[in-house]
Amino acid sequence: MQWLERTIATISPRWAYNRQAWRSGMDALYDGASRNRVNMNWNPESTYDENRMRATRELMRARARDLERNSDIAQAVITAFERNVVGNGMVLQAKIPGQEELNGEIEALWKEFCKAENCDITGTQSMEEIEEMLVRRYVVDGGILIVKVYVSDSDYPFKIQVREVDELNPLATPTGSNRIIDGVEIDQYNRPVAYHFKKYRNNLAIPGESVRVDAKNVIFWWRKTSPRQVREVSMLATAMTRIKDANQFVEAVSIKERVLACLSVFIKKNTPSGSVGRAVNTPTKQLSYDGVTLSPGMIGELNPGDEVQTVIPSGQASNTKEFITTLIRLVASGIGLSYETVSRDLSMVNYSSARQGMLEDRKTFKKMQKSLVQNVLSPIYLEFLDSMFLKGKISARDYLENRRKYAAHVWIPPGYTWIDPLKEVNANKVALESNQDTLARICAERGEDWRDVVEQRMAEIQLIQKMTGGETSGEDNTSSGNDEE
Question: Locations of Polar residues compositional bias (predicted)?
């Protein structure tokens, strides 16, 4: 009841009650906008999201990294993305039309470039390992930065430098008309113009100083969910509270079970009876129980009048499994995965439910694969092509005039296998015969190129026919020879 109704109620309770009833009935058109008793404490601010994110982004990132280090549930979510998005790495195939030999040369150069000493400026990670790290930081931190670097003393002058998002300098100040939000310099259209990284000296950031890098030389892989959003938000933002609850609950249950498994013994001593003075009969030597423990088959001696009492904690374990299962389901569904993928618990599924869960999970993984290819891998590959042409390792005179033609390529992600391959093979056979699917799409789902499959099958069939035909002709010659004899 509002203050005015309370004042009126002192004079006329009926009048105040009617006013409150009408106010409650006309509160809001939607229940979600009502300010009744249920929603009384639900008053979020309607402000610019980026301003509110700036105050919480660093804290959420620190909490997400803490869960990454200390939570097996968070680690299960992260490794699920690593395992299914990257797997053994993305396979590049150059697709320059009519240039099969050049395609092979470029693929060989790319394979050599993917070695740690050629692609990584630090020389410590191969391209596959970098891809895996990118996915991990994308899930935990919400984004990752890749800086394009050129060196002069290498056969592969183009290299990449991976930098974390917390290396952006939030204290950088603009010097022109552009704005700087948490280290990202943007123009009037909110388009990134440059990135301001912290400047270090003796492993310590120098206050007020930063290194400005043009946006064309930086790849910022992050997920944008709001038109005015400039920086990243951790994918674990909505799930971290559930993960923390699960960790604390498991710890509490573990402590409770340890307490229930304990057996304690107390020594109850009787107070000596008798009158005060010389008539009290007390032993001259008392046994001490300090440091005494129980062991199987032990035989001990107590002081006269002492009694042993055991303490066995009562109670039983709570219904832990159902509660943990519910929390993991909430965590997995909020991120876009199934319970089975995160928990690796397949005790409650059959073929149909497991297949449906895998299909939904693959939509999530393919979405991230597409983002990784378009925003990270393809820009790196195009920069690699330019560097190889300038280095003279690609023999193409019209490269600059027909750069789009030479840039044609595809990425083959890691393949997936099914629970019952026979059913899937029969389904693919029917789909091909009825023209409802293509060999290219079926092979792509398995992580293979359909041209390689066709060429390999043709080579195998020709070899089988050649070997079978040789044996047949030999048998025919022998038979004809016997007939002549």
Answer: 475-485
Predicted TM-score of the model (pTM): 0.77
Q: Which amino acid type is present at position 140?
A: V
Q: Are residues 10 and 120 in the same domain?
A: no
Q: Alpha helix locations (H) across 206-281?
A: 240-260
One domain for residues 64 and 190: yes
Domain limit, last residue, from 219, 236, 253: 236
| Domain closes at, from 236, 258, 273 | 236
Strands in 120-176 per DSSP E: 143-150, 158-163
Single-letter code of the amino acid located at 201: R
Contact 113, 119 (CB under 8 A): yes
Question: Is 355 inside any structural domain?
Answer: no
- The answer to whether residues 17 and 110 belong to one domain is no
The DSSP secondary structure of 268-306, one letter per residue, reads EPPPPPS-SSTT----SSPPP-TT----TT------TT-
CB atoms within 10 A of CB 263: 9
pLDDT of the residue at 474: 43
**pLDDT over threshold 70, residue 26:** no
In 70-135, the DSSP E strands lie at 91-94
CA distance 243 to 328: 8
195 and 141, same structural domain?
Answer: yes
- Name residue 410's beta-bridge partners: 93
Domain that holds residue 201: 59-236
Give phi and psi for 185, each to the nearest 5: -90, 125
Task: Give the SS3 label for residue 425.
Answer: helix
